[in-house]
Amino acid sequence: MLRTLLLTALLSASALAVATPAPKTPDLGANITLNYKADDLKSAYAILNIAAGDIWVLNLPDDVVDIVTSKDGVLQFQKRGNRVVIGATASSGSYPVLVMTQDSVFFFQARLSASRGGGLHNIVVQAGEGEAAAAAPKPPSGATAAAPARLALPTLPKASAAPSMPAAQVAALQSAAQPRPQQTPAAPAVPAPTVPVKAAPQPDAGLLRVEYRALTDGQVTRLYYKITNAGTLPVLYSEQGLRVSTNGAVPYERNKTKMLVVSGKTVYGEVLLRGVPTLLNATWGATSLTGQAVAGSPVRVTVEQLN
Question: What does the angle CA 106 – CA 206 – CA 283 come to, to the nearest 5 degrees?
Answer without folding.
Answer: 90
